[in-house]
Amino acid sequence: MKFLHLSDLHIGKTVNGFSMIEEQRHVFRQVTRYIQTEHPSAVVIAGDVYDRAAPGIEAVRVFDDFLTELSREDMAVLLVSGNHDSPDRLNYASRLLSDKRIHMRGVFDGSLRSVTLADGYGEVNFWLLPFIKPTSVHGMYARREIESYDDALAAALESASIDYTERNVLVSHQFYTKAGVTALRSESELNPVGGLDAISADLISAFDYVALGHLHGFQTVGYEHIRYAGSPIKYSLSEWRQEKSVSLVELREKGSLAVTALPLTPLHDMRTIKGKIDVLTSDSISSQGDRDDYLRVVLTDEEEIINPMAKLRSVYPNVMALDFDNSRKGVDAGALSANSDKIDSLSPFDLFSEFFLETSGAVMSEEQSEIVRELLETTEDQ
């Protein structure tokens, strides 16, 4: 059986004030083309469909378009909610959609359920496990003591009668770890302090394949068959060296597995450039790449530069971050006023993101972004 594994779509996400909607549409079209050439039996989406629990109208339309395209192909769609999603919103109309072979598990009710597909080697059971927390499942298992994420996952697995002599695939959106293996993490992920959300990958090692979501880099977790597909787009500057892809998984007879990373090409790449401002903005240098790429610029000039961001964006309109590698390490805070038209179009959050960038020369972390969002929401409610 052949299926595509992707995750962490984060539809509706903005990165440093720049909307990723067109980038998302661009990669979804590539996924559709892979479906038409590879003819998989299913597409698996392992959580974080949206970037926020209450997605905007445009984000909902993008997902609706993507899901409609998937439904036109001769295959199943298998989807679980992630920690960024609203479980109830994703669960809406799930029973009706299942008749169209679109199986969405947004809410976990204490029972792990599967969708069974068949090929020439027999049946494959896809077990769909939405994102869970110990607190959210505690009352579901009265006879069990659930204090950790390991406990919650073990209880969820025990709720199902899984025959491991058959071929089984687990779809899950959690942070799995393996002793001695360092996970590749990025700034665009929510990272609880101390790794309290970590779950041992040993608990899921009996599956024939584990399609994971949550980490944004394509990677295994101590076992070749336990994999994160990674996000289809670079969602933070810490990911600029990553090559994004969708995983093509092939299960033949039990014990036979092949995984191929099918590359996804961005509409505009994310990269870092470094040098003196006059050199970087010269035609000879700027013409060597796409000037519309999303950039982190590191300036090495020793002398003071007036409005460096304005000068850079006159050549590279999508500069996301500005840093300095010189003896002064200064940033011109007045550069924020360089593009008044853009400022007028920014939301309060995006405006603060721009201000933070201009005054600190760095990008807000995901934790800082969440704090700012909460403060702004509190202010709006008053």
Give an overview of the whole structure.
The chain has 382 residues and is an alpha/beta fold. The protein has two domains: 2-263, Purple Acid Phosphatase, chain A, domain 2; 270-381, no CATH class. It is built from twelve helices and 19 strands. It has a six-stranded mixed sheet. β13 and β14 form a beta hairpin. The radius of gyration is 22 Å and the shape is globular.
Sheet with most strands: 6 strands, mixed
Q: What's the level 1 CATH class of the largest domain?
A: Alpha Beta
Question: Mind telling me which CATH architecture of the largest domain this is?
Answer: 4-Layer Sandwich
Helix content: 25-40%
What's the alpha carbon Rg, rounded to whole Å? 22 Å
Top keywords for this entry?
382 residues, alpha/beta, Purple Acid Phosphatase, chain A, domain 2, 2 domains, 6-stranded mixed β-sheet
Structure summary:
The protein is α/β, with parallel strands linked by helices and 382 residues long. The chain contains twelve helices and 19 strands.
